[in-house]
Specification:
CATH architecture of chain B: Sandwich
Radius of gyration of chain A: 13 Å
CATH superfamily of chain A: Immunoglobulins
Number of helices of chain B: 0
CATH superfamily of chain B: Immunoglobulins
Strand content of chain A: over 45%
Order of helices and strands of chain A: EEEEEEEEEEE
Structural class of chain A: mainly beta
Largest sheet of chain B: 6 strands, mixed
Distance between the termini of chain A: 37 Å
Oligomer: heterodimer
CATH topology of chain A: Immunoglobulin-like
Number of strands of chain B: 12
Strand content of chain B: over 45%
Helix content of chain A: under 10%
Shape of chain B: globular
Shape of chain A: globular
Order of helices and strands of chain B: EEEEEEEEEEEE
Number of domains of chain A: 1
Structural class of chain B: mainly beta
Number of domains of chain B: 1
CATH architecture of chain A: Sandwich
Helix content of chain B: under 10%
Largest sheet of chain A: 7 strands, mixed
CATH class of chain A: Mainly Beta
Number of helices of chain A: 0
């Protein structure tokens, strides 16, 4: 079937604006991860869901970042009152089970905050 | 703290030459290890992975990697590079119960004609 999809692919926001980034994981995948990739850096972990439960949000950089996966499939990462330092590529990944398994990545959403 | 290090930021090789990209890890126990490739504007594509067993693993596109516990390394190799291999390569480690990946900073590969 289809891979992981993300939308929008590109987002330009004015500083202070709220944004919502969507991730559609591979159907049936239990685990879903969000990563942030700053320019010239490797991806860094933000948060992890197992089905609808958010089991780890230790990587979220501030309380302006919020993620949800209410029905255990699609996930949304919301950033409130965006700042310039939020500019990055936001990657979503899913895996079939839990724990140490292969993660499959979406194409990412490139966010630019002006 | 757990970490993955890619010592080379940028490598340039001639087309047809061999390639080795370095990766070192620091974990309490041996993690699962991955190599991903990222082309400009694209997501991460899995090249290969090491979970256990044979320390030489084969991946897609003619890549292979060798796990060396004594050196805490998982270097990526290819015997003959093609121009289409130009991209950024990320090594990642995965440990613990939930499986979030820890990435190195990446190595950008340029290929000379």
């Amino acid at each position: 079937g289809a891979g992981v999809s993300q939308s929008p692919r590109y987002k330009v926001a004015k500083r202070g604006q709220d944004v919502a980034l969507r991730c559609d994981p591979i159907s049936g995948h239990v685990s879903l991860f969000w990563y942030q990739q700053a320019l010239g850096q490797g991806p860094e972990f933000l948060t992890y869901f197992q089905n609808e439960a958010q089991l780890d949000k230790s990587g979220l950089p501030s309380d302006r970042f919020f993620a949800e996966r209410p029905e255990g499939s699609v996930s949304t990462l919301k950033i409130q009152r965006t700042q310039q330092e939020d500019s990055a590529v936001y990657l979503c990944a899913s895996s079939l089970g839990q724990g140490q398994e292969t993660q499959y990545f979406g194409p990412g959403t490139r966010l630019l905050v002006l | 703290a757990q970490s993955v290090t890619q010592p080379d930021i940028h490598i340039t090789v001639s087309e047809g030459a061999s390639l080795e990209l370095r990766c070192n890890y620091s974990y309490g126990a041996t993690p699962y290890l991955f190599w991903y490739v990222q082309s400009p504007g694209q997501g991460l594509q899995l090249l290969l992975k090491y979970f256990s067993g044979d320390t030489l693993v084969q991946g897609i596109k003619g890549f292979e990697a060798e796990f060396k516990r004594s050196q805490s390394s998982f270097n990526l190799r290819k015997p003959s590079v093609h121009w289409s291999d130009a991209a950024e390569y990320f090594c990642a480690g995965q440990g613990g119960s939930q499986g979030n990946l820890i990435f190195g900073k990446g190595t950008k590969l340029s290929v000379k004609p």
